[in-house]
C-alpha cells in the first residue's frame, strides 16, 4: 500500500501547526547547502516515492516540484530526519542551480562586519531559467 | 554603537511572526550539516558580536548559547543570509558533537524504503555531556 510504504518516516516527522517541516537541501557530494524550503506530508511522500524532491510552496499553497518550471531539478540521494523529528536534511543531486537568482545556492550573502557581501556569482541568467 | 554595528545584516533578515529565523549550522571545513535551530534578532547580534553561536531556545524561551552546558561550542566562521532573507546558514567550527544525543550531527536517521536506519554512531556518552 502506497499510504503505508513510508509510514515509518512520516510517523517520525513532527510537522508543525501548519502541517509543515523545514527541509534543508544539500548537494550530496560537494556538501554545499543549496536552500531551505518546507514540506508537508504529501511532499515528503512524493519525494520518497518519485526520487525527485518536492516541497510545499507556502506562497502558492501547493506542491512545488523543484525544477518543474526552471528545469533545475533535485534528485533525491538520501532523506534524513533530525533527532527531534522537526527538521529534514535532503541530500540531493542538483541540476544546474538551486536559487531562482541563477546562483548555485541561495546562501550567497555574507554578513561581514558592518557589510553584506555577495560571495557567489550568478551562473545562469534568471531570464534563461524562467522563459 | 553596538546597536547599529550589525544593522545591515539585521535589516536583511526577515524574522517570522514569532520574531525568529531558522539557522542551519554547517561545519565550515567538512561541510557536515550539524543541526538546525532558531535565532531571534538578539541571538543574531550576539553571534556576530561574540563569534560564538547563540540560538533562541523555543522550549526555554531564552537565549541558548550553544555549548554553555555541554561544552560543545560552535565558533562562527561565516553567517550567510539566503536570497529571500528568511533562512540563515552559519558556518561554524563545532567542538566535539552538535547533537544532545552525543552524535556529531542531529541528522543520523535516514529514511530508506520502509525503514528508518541510524547512519551515525554516538561519539560521546550524553551522560558525559550533561553531568
UniProtKB/TrEMBL annotation, chains A, B:
EC number(s) given by UniProt: 3.5.4.19
Localization of this protein: Cytoplasm
Pfam families: PRA-CH (PF01502)
HAMAP family for the chain: HisI
Record NCBIfam families: PRK00051.1
Subunit record text: Homodimer.
Name the UniProt record assigns to this protein: Phosphoribosyl-AMP cyclohydrolase
